[in-house]
Amino acid sequence: MEVALSIKNLTKKYEGGVVALNGISLEVLEGDFMALLGPNGAGKSTAIGIICSLINKTAGKVTVFSHDIDTDFPSAKQNIGIVPQEFNFNQFEKVEDILIQQAGYFGIKLKTATARTEKYLKLLGIWDKRNVQSRMLSGGMKRRLMIARALVHEPKLLILDEPTAGVDIELRRSMWDFLLDLNNKGTTIILTTHYLEEAERMCRTIAIIDNGDIIENTSKRDLLAKLDQETFVLDLDSDVEKLPDLPGCRVRKIDPRTLEFDILRGRTLNELFDGLTRQGIKVKSMRNKSNRLEELFVALVKKQNHHNPSKNNEK
Amino acid sequence: MDIQGQLIALQTICVKEIRRFTRIWIQTLVPPAISVILYFVIFGQLIGGRIGNMGGYPYIQYIVPGLIMMSVITNAYSNVVSSFFGTKFQRSIEELLVSPTSNTVIILGFVTGGVARGLSVGVIVTALSLFFAKLTIHNIWVTMTIVFLTSVLFSLGGLINAIYATKFDDISIVPTFVLTPLTYLGGVFYSIDLLPTFWAVVSRGNPIVYMVSGFRYGILGVSDVGLAASYAMILFFIAGLYTWAWVLIHKGIGIRS
C-alpha cells in the first residue's frame, strides 16, 4: 500500500525559541483514517500547517504520495485538501464563488468547477445557501463550507483540523457519516480533534503528539489494548447497604443505587456479573464512565509530562 | 500543475480582483472622479486662468496628463494594497497558499487587478477632462505604454506594502507619507524646469517625475525628462519590485509563520 504522507524529522522552531515540533516522524498509509491527538499547543496545527505549506518548517522532510512539498510542491498540493481550525474564507464572497475560485486555484476548468461545486455543496447540505454571502452562514454551515472547499479539487489526502469544534451533536454525527463514507471510497483522512469519542468511533490509527513529540503512533486496537482498566457505572435495581467484594475490581458507591467499578485488565464482565448475582445484586443498566480512548490519552499525556516537566513549562 | 492550469488560476485571481473593485464601485471608482473634478475646477479653471500657459499649453491642459497619472498611480497602488491585505486579514490568502498556484501567478493576478482599476480610473478621469480641456494625443503608443507600465509598477508597490503590513495603519502610511508627497512633487501641477536648479536636480531623483513626464509627452509632446529615461526608470523599478515581491512570497514573509 502506498504511503500517503511521510514526515521525517520534522522540526519547527518559532522566533523566540519556542520549539513546536521536535523532529517528529510519521507515516500515514493510503486509505487510512488517522487521528492526530494532543493537548492544546502540542504541535498538531503546526504539523498540519507545514504539510499544507501554511507554515515554514525549520528542518525535516515531508512527502505527500511521494511528492516532496519543497521540490515538487505543485503535485504535493494537488493531493492535499485542508480544513483548517479557523474560518479562512472571504466573508464577503458568496458560498458558490468560494468553491469555484478554490477550484480555479487548482487549475480546474470552470465547467468542471461548477459541477463539483454543486456536487459538494449538495453532499454537505448547503446547496440552498450557494448565493448567500459566507458571513451570513451559521457556524455549522461555515464548517461544512470549508469541508466542501477542501474537496473541490478531489484530493487523495484530506486533513481536518478540529472540524467539529463548536458543532451540535446532530450535525457532528452527520459529518462523521460523511467522512466515513469518504474514507470508504478511498480518501485518506487525517483528523485532529479534542472529541476523543470522535477519534475512537472513526479512526483506525491514532497518533498522539505532546510537547512537539510523537508519544504514540499505533492502531486504535493496539492502543486500546494498553488500557490497564475500564470504569463502568452500574444502575442497580435496589439500594445496597454494603459494597460488594469482587476480586479484580475496585468498587465505589456513587449513591445507594449506583456503583462504579474499575475492572482491571484480564478480568471479564462475566466475572463481575457472576459476583454481583451471587451477592443478590441486580443490575438495571450499565455504561462506560468515560470514553476509553480519553482515559488512555489522559494517562499517556500525564506520563509524558511527568517525564519532561521542563518542556511543558516552555509553552 | 501545467501551464494551462496556471493560466486558469491566473484568470481566477484576475476575475476575483476585478469583481472586487467593481462590486464596490462607489468606494473605488467614484471618489477619484470627484477629486479630479475638484482639481480641474480649482487648479485648472479658477487658479489656472491666472497662471497662463505652461510648456506652451494652457495650464488646465498642461495638468491633465499629470492628474490622469496621479489617479492611475494612487488607484493601482491602493487597489492591490487593500485587496491583498484584506486577504491576509481574513486569512483567505491561505486558499492560495495551499494551492499549486505559482508565486508568479499570484503576483500577476493581484497586479492585474491593480492595473485594471488604475486604467479604469484613468479612463474615467480622461473622460471628465474633456469637460474642462481639449484632449490631444501626441503619441498613442507612448501614452498607452507609459500609463500601463506605471500602473504595473505601483500595483507591485502596493503588493509589497500589503505583504509587510501587519495592521490597517501599515497600509495607509506609505500612501500618505511617501506616495502622495512624491506624486505632488512629481511634476503633476508644474514643470520641474520652473524649479531652482538645486530642486530641479533633486526632483530628478523622484521616479514619479519620469512617469508623469513620459505620459505628458505622449499626450502633449512636451516632457521634463527624456522619453528613454522615462522608460528605463519605469522598467528598472518594475524589475526590482517584481523580484522583491517574488522573493517575499517565496520565503513566505508576512504570509506564512
Please state the CA-atom Rg of chain B, rounded to the nearest Å.
19 Å
> What CATH first level of the largest domain in chain A would be assigned?
Alpha Beta
Helix and strand sequence of chain B: HHHEEHHHHHHHH
For the record, the count of structural domains of chain A works out to 3
Shape of chain B: elongated
Strand order of the largest sheet of chain A: 6-7-8-3-9-10
Query: Strand share of the residues of chain A?
Result: 25-35%
Order of helices and strands of chain A: EEEHEEHEHHHEHEHEEHEEEHEHH
What's the count of strands of chain B?
Answer: 2
What's the end-to-end separation of chain A, in Å?
Answer: 38 Å
Low-confidence stretches of chain B: none
The biggest beta sheet of chain B reads: 2 strands, antiparallel
According to CATH, the fold-level topology of the largest domain in chain A is: Rossmann fold
Quick recap:
Chain A contains eleven helices and 14 strands. In chain A, the strands form three sheets. A six-stranded mixed β-sheet of chain A has the order 6-7-8-3-9-10, sandwiched between helices. A four-stranded antiparallel β-sheet of chain A has the order 2-1-4-5. With 315 residues, chain A is α/β, with parallel strands linked by helices.
Jot down its keywords:
heterodimer, A: 315 residues, alpha/beta, Rossmann fold, Alpha-Beta Plaits, six-stranded mixed sheet, four-stranded antiparallel sheet, 11 helices, 36% helix, 29% strand, B: 257 residues, mainly alpha
